Amino acid sequence: MRQIKFYGITGFSKTGETMVRSFGFFLFLSLLWSVSGWAGDDFLDLENRLTTHPFHVVQSRILSIGALKPQQWLIEDETDGVQIKVKWKIFGRDLDEWNNSPRREVSAYEFQKLFLEPENYVVPPTVVRCLDPKKFEKVLETSTPQLRESNCVLGTLSAWVEGASPFHDLDSKRLKTDLLYQQAISRFNLLTYFIRHADSHAGNFLLKEESQKVQIYSIDNGVSFSGPLTDYLYWKSLRIKKISQKTSEKLQKLTLEDVEDQLLVASQLDLTKDLFFVSTQRERTLNPKEGVNHQAGVLQFGLTHNEIKAVFKRIESVVKKLKKGKITPF
Fold first, then answer.
1. Which of 140, 162, 184 is the last residue of a domain?
2. Domain identity same for 135 and 85
3. Residue 140, C-beta contacts closer than 8 angstroms, at least 6 positions apart
4. Cα 13 from Cα 235, distance rounded (Å)
5. What is the DSSP string of 94-113?
6. Each residue of 23-49: pLDDT tens digit?
7. Which of 147, 162, 177 marks a domain boundary?
8. Percent of the chain residues past pLDDT 90, beyond the cut
């Protein structure tokens, strides 16, 4: 077996009698892909694969108990044989529920694009996918579509972070001396503050450390932006005093319209002739007062106008602190 590693993302692609490690995939293909020093192109590749490529599940296991059991899948991309590890989480019947809010999960992923470079994303690629219950009958929790007009089951697919450990809390001593750790905390806390992450326990965050990179990932963002609060609010507040120069520049240029363009519709799926919802180009929101919009074969997920205004107020707060020197660039 010949093994080649690209940008720290590990996957396997079958080519004749050989298997070549190739770019990772956002689903659950056959071997696991690992996150270690992602490059920008990797994120685009992962996101594209998870959103549009056909795949099948090689292995699966349930991650937790409960009515809506998330699963870890190993999937294989049917276009080139690349295999990746992902998390699958089925939608609830109402499409948006407390602690199972796909629109918030996808919005958190899309929002970070406004101020972070792809290689520094805090939220792994997360997309909405509608799967054929006949093709995936062995792994899907139900064969009944959430929407009667369709023939597919809705859920989110998110890239699996390999080689990481639960992130419990801020290491104050390390923060004073370790620049890579400072940068990781800065990116992570900006994200959790902006999205008002209200479920800040260690099971939702991961710490991954390598020789030239420290990264903290937020892997569960279903309780964010708005809605009921939990007892885990530690990272909802802003606790940092430094951010990167690039991030500072991006934040100071952001307008409310920029955030609305990105988040009023974070994901859109259209119904095909075969009655399957497939990802398509995002269009103008059907109703800015709703985070989930469903009308005439169009399904949109994003934030409401009021949620976005609240996000932008938090952005303005950081920008004011930058201008006053209360937050400074690295």
1. 162
2. yes
3. 90, 131, 133, 153
4. 39
5. TS-BTTB-HHHHHHHHHHGG
6. 333 333 333 444 444 555 688 899 999
7. 162
8. 76
